[in-house]
Amino acid sequence: MRLLTHNMLSSNIKGVANGLPLKIKAGKVMQKQVEMNLDFLKNMFSKIEWKPFVEAAKTLGYSELSEDVDPSLLDSQGFLANFHHALLEIHLKEGALVCPETGCRFPFSKGTPNMLLHEDEV
């Protein structure tokens, strides 16, 4: 699972008011090189919840992202390279995502989170 995916997931357990950001309990983390697409990065920038994105990257051992950002950074090759790496090249292979409100764990294996709920959670 890439951090791009993590940034868009939330807990949908019945009664949960604040299901994001899901906390990451990392098991196996890998890095895979991906060709950089500047247009994609610039379009995704406005869709990313930045603070949870930075926290997730730090959880996975990547601390090259600035806490504070603005669109003017999209002209910086260094910023774009760091953003690209965190967004697309860090892959969470094994571990769990944890609901911040209930503590419910959503395990993932082979990079795929299992977000299925039990009948009483729907």
Q: What does it look like?
A:
By secondary structure, this protein is an alpha+beta fold. The chain has four helices and four strands, in the order αβαααβββ. It has helices at 3-8, 38-45, 50-59, 77-89, and strands at residues 23-31, 90-98, 105-109, 112-113. Strand 2 (90-98) and strand 3 (105-109) form a beta hairpin. It is globular. The two termini are 24 Å apart. 16% of the residues are buried. The mean pLDDT is 89.
Mean pLDDT, all residues? 89
Low-confidence stretches: none
Strand order of the largest sheet: 1-2-3-4
Count the strands? 4
- Name the helicity range: 25-40%
What's the tally of helices? 4
Evaluate the radius of gyration: 15 Å
Q: SSE string, helix = H, strand = E?
A: HEHHHEEE
Tell me the fraction of residues in β-strands, as a range: 15-25%
Give a quick summary of the entry.
The chain has 122 residues and is an alpha+beta fold.
List its traits:
alpha+beta; 122 residues; 4 helices; 30% helix
Layout of helices and strands:
Blueprint: H1 3-8, E1 23-31, H2 38-45, H3 50-59, H4 77-89, E2 90-98, E3 105-109, E4 112-113
